[in-house]
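for the recovery benchmark. tokens below, seq after
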């Protein structure tokens, strides 16, 4: 059956690693369609490919810096797969 899949996943805050629950929706081809943070005190950090979360308590600049580090780390992991 080609249906969207809804999963409850646990992801660590990209700044401090605190765990948050997310409701994540994937297409039948494993593409990320959307996600929502279901635990209090967290919010989604927008990324087109992955569900990311950060605590509400962190300043925007800290979240932005953590997200840049995350992108760099993810880019290095995927470099081998692209070629
Ligand atoms: Zn945090």
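predicted aa per position
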């Amino acid at each position: 059956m080609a249906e969207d899949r809804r999963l409850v996943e646990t992801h660590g805050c990209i700044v401090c690693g605190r765990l948050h629950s997310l409701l994540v929706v994937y297409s039948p081809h494993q593409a990320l369609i959307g996600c929502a943070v279901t635990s209090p005190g967290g919010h989604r950090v927008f990324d087109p490919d992955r569900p990311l979360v950060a605590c509400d308590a962190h300043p925007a600049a800290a979240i932005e810096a953590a997200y840049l580090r995350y992108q760099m780390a993810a880019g290095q992991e995927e470099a081998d797969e692209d070629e």
